Amino acid sequence: GGGRVVVVPACIQEPLDALAEKLDRPAKITYADLVLLNWSVTSEGKTDSKGAVKPGRDTLENLRIHQRFLAVPAEEWFFKMHIAMEGEAAECISAISGGLCAIQQDNVPAVTSCLDSLCQGLRSLISCHPDPYPHSSRAELVLMRRLKPFIAPDASLKEFSCWVYAGHSALIPTLFMFLGVKKGKHCLQAWRENSVKYMPTEHRKFIGMIQSNVTARAFVKGKIMAKSSLRVHDIAVLEGSFNRCIEQLLRFCSRRSQLVCRCVPNVAQWFREVEMKQEAEFLTRSHCALLIGRKLLAPLNPEGGTSD
Fold first, then answer.
1. Number of structural domains the chain divides into
2. Which is nearest to 48 in space by CA: 96, 2, 88?
3. Does residue 172 lie within any of the structural domains?
4. Beta-sheet strands, E only, within the chain
5. PANTHER family under this entry (predicted)?
6. Do the domain assignments include residue 297?
7. Of 92, 131, 255, 282, which has the highest C-beta tally within 10 A?
8. What is the pTM of this model?
């Protein structure tokens, strides 16, 4: 800080560079190091299909951080919350993976089911955020002041607030891409696109797979526009499931915004009134107009069809 330049000793920098090259990631401390690869569960907790214990909101008390980076009281709480969130995200990732397959197979009931599962997974992510918070916001403020020189030494506070919002996690980019949320030109969108290079290889591959497939929104819109044998009810149910996912994602992003405002209060007003306003706008615009409502208004169309 204060313009002081710290040169990392060669005995540390050289092996760090070599490791970064093998991992195909920049040679710096990232979200993967602090959260994804820095935990264990010390006793019974949630298990996956193979019986392995996994992190989650129900195992917070049993999570152990392997390496505490800073001697700050809020550090363990902050990273445990994100470890739990990544653990709860398994339901979302499974739903997205199933949704991609269902879209490729043009299976409307299966896509609807996957969207319903994704909606439930998003509710689990939201529940990882405390309401109310267990301590004063000053604890998070001190944590972020000490963490920033290591995580984002050259970033402005506005840029750092984007890190607090999304980290280098694949979670938010994956959700936005799969659902087909419209892209903006705001800082959060730029951060999402730039953060991919800091993610583990498998996470980048998954994002690449989503990018090469049809989005959920495009699939839903295609079914609305196409003249098919599908019942109006089935398409309306599909739309409803998609819109509920958008609504839950908006709630999740709102919780992330609240966290940013506590952690980086100096830019809280800017983040809330500029960044989150645009984020919410693009999410809201990604809703699909309900088909049933358009069908009810169909007699107003002189050609007898329905408008999109």
1. 1
2. 88
3. yes
4. 39-41, 63-65
5. INDOLEAMINE 2,3-DIOXYGENASE
6. no
7. 92
8. 0.85
User: Within a domain: residue 94?
Assistant: yes
Identify which of 251, 248, 255 has the alpha carbon closest to the alpha carbon of residue 133.
255
Identify the pLDDT of residue 291.
60
What confidence score (pLDDT) does residue 46 get? Answer: 57
Q: Is the peptide bond before 132 cis (omega within 30 degrees of 0)?
A: yes
Q: Which amino acid is at 126?
A: I
Rounded to whole angstroms, the Cα distance separating 174 from 176 reads 6
* Residue indicated by tokens 């301590």: 135
Which residues span the domain enclosing 36?
A: 21-289
Q: The tokens of 56 are what?
A: 């989650």
Q: Which residues pair with 53 in a beta bridge?
A: 47
Rounded-to-integer distance, Cα 119 and Cα 116, Å: 5
Encoded tokens for 93 = 């990732």
Q: What is the DSSP letter of 105?
A: T
Q: Give the CATH number, domain containing residue 151.
A: 1.20.58.480
10-residue mean pLDDT profile of the chain (308 residues): values are 59 82 83 86 60 72 83 86 93 98 97 98 95 84 91 91 94 97 92 92 95 96 80 91 97 97 96 97 88 52 44
The burial class, CB within 10 Å (0-12 / 13-18 / 19+), for 34 is: buried
Cα separation of the two ends of the chain: 55
Report pLDDT digits (tens) over 64-80: 888 887 878 788 899 99
Q: Report the SS3 class of residue 110.
A: helix
3-state secondary structure of 9: coil
Query: What is the reported pLDDT for 307?
Result: 43
Name the helix (H) or strand (E) containing 282. helix 276-285
Place of tokens 């498998």: 202
Within a domain: residue 302? no
Q: Which residues contact 74 (CB under 8 A, 6 or more apart)?
A: 135, 139, 140, 142, 143
